[in-house]
Amino acid sequence: MGSHGWSLCVSTGAHADDFVALVSGTREDAIAEKTALAAYLRQTMGLELSPEKTKVTAMTEGFEFLGFRFIMHWDKRYGYGPHKRSGGSSSPTHAGWD
After folding, report:
1. Which residues are within 8 A (CB) of 33 and not within 5 positions of it... i.e. 6 or more apart?
2. Given 3, 60, 68, 86, which is the most exposed site by the fewest CB atoms within 10 A?
3. Where are the domains of the chain?
């Protein structure tokens, strides 16, 4: 449990040697998880995270993963949700293409 009485939530998605870790919390929480993950991968598997490919970003800024753009936006009726592609696709897994 975090110091505020709630648990930190970390989710991952992977494909081959690429993966994404989503952290529900502050930027500092995400950086701490990245540091812990880097240490775990180094100690258990001898792997290093690539500084060029590894970044911490808010979902409202979005990110690219395996050729897809993931981004969330605020909707005053529903809260945060996937950003819809202007071309009409409603699939949340690849919404928000540039």
Report:
1. 8, 10, 21, 23
2. 3
3. 1-56, 58-98
